[in-house]
Structures are given as structure tokens and as C-alpha cells.
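User:
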Amino acid sequence: MKKTILLFLSLIFISNSFASDIIYLKDGSKIKGDLLSVDVDELTFKTAKKDKKLLKLKPEEVEFVKVENYEKLLEVQESMYLKGMNDAQIHHKRFGGNFCAGLFGGVIGFVIVAVTDAKSPNPLLVGEENFKSMEYREGYNKKAKGKNLGAAGIGWAVSFLVLLVLISS
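Assistant: Predicted structure:
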């Protein structure tokens, strides 16, 4: 009886440890399982736990996905939305101006950055066919906008801390 229980527990452990994909969420947690599909609005993922839940996650919730299977990696890379997000992570370099908007404009500078669109990608840099894809540009804009807001938020925080130091001294 003990051997049967031990064998059963080891099979569960082995099946969980060999899950092909891992999703790392922005809250720091990670989920093992299988990535089923990637769309503009959601990632569909089946957990590796015994209940095999079907999760539908928004791209904003996901930090990155580790895919173990090469064929699945090719399938995920075909998603123009994710390709746009990845290219924005690499090519979108507008930190200084957005930081200054938050630093010197405070809340108003942050709001201005929030309501304006991110700069479009350079077609020569990202490729003409990518640039023409609306799905690609949506992914690029989403990631670039997030980077802009992050820079403006850091600038706003720095200006707030400087103001606190000046007031306290």
C-alpha cells in the first residue's frame, strides 16, 4: 500500500515538473502547464495541476512565457501582437522625454503621457510587413505606452521625493 501511494505521488510530482510551458505573471507567481493559444486580448493556458484548469490571461497580467517545445515557440512567435510587444521592448527608446515630462510636469506631465499615443515604430527598423499589420502595431503600441508611463511615473516619483526633501530641510 505504501509503495502504491509513493508511486502515485511521484507520478504527480513528475508530471508537474515536466510541464512544457511556464507563465511568469507580473505579480511574481508562476504557473506550469501548456500554452494553447495567443490572441490580441488573451493567452489561453491549461495548468499542469491535476484539475487541468483552463486559464484565460490578459497580456497585461503576463511578464513572459517560457516555452519548452520548439514547435510551440514558432507558433507563439507567429503571433503578430506578441511580436509587436517584443519589438517595442527592444526598439522603443523614449525614456528621457517621458521621464522629464513626469519630473517637471508632475501629475499633469504624467496625465499628458497617459493620454497621448506612443510613437509609431520605424518601418525600416521593424520591417515593412510588420508595420502594415494592425495586430503588430497594437502590440507595439501597448508595450511602448507602458514603457512611456513607467518613465513618466519614475520622473513624477523623483520630483515628489525632491519636493519632500526640500520641504523637510
